[in-house]
Amino acid sequence: TLRKNTPASGGGTEFGNIRLPEPPAGFKWKASALTRFFSAVPEDWKYEEETTNDGIKITISEDDAAAIEVVTTLQKKVNGAVLDVATATLEKLTKGKQVVGKQQNQLGDQTQMLSVIQDGNQVTFYLLVANTKTNSLRMGTFSCPMGRMSDAGKTAQQVMNTVIWVE
After folding, report:
1. Residue 118's closest CA among 88, 165, 83, 153?
2. Are 152 and 98 in contact (CB under 8 A)?
3. Is the pLDDT of residue 31 over 80?
4. Which helix (H) or strand (E) holds 160?
5. What's the CA gap between 29 and 116, in Å, rounded?
């Protein structure tokens, strides 16, 4: 069960013995019904989840207009070494496209890989998070028109990054 802590314990949300930080202002934690997974969702955005061949697909989109849509796919376990799978997946997603940005970060057992694609006036971000300890993978992506990048794009990137997946 997901429950709020008493204010005396400093706030946040608990899932079993997992304590989540307070979400950013204007966000709320959403616990996936299908996995032990949390994402910080803007309070007025839509949230849907479904099971697909690739795993669990979570779609978060702006309520007023679908100009921005954030899609997170979870694959609990991966066949093969997770970093190889992540690299091959990212190459497949970006093949033949104009890559305008790339970044890779290491956070403990987790490796984050980010690629930014530009197609005309549209910008798409792909973020893969590979966990070498559990050999599991999740992928986030969002697209938006370039003119929306400043505010809505930052929000979408925050949705993709502010995720806690309880292994």
Report:
1. 153
2. no
3. yes
4. helix 154-161
5. 26
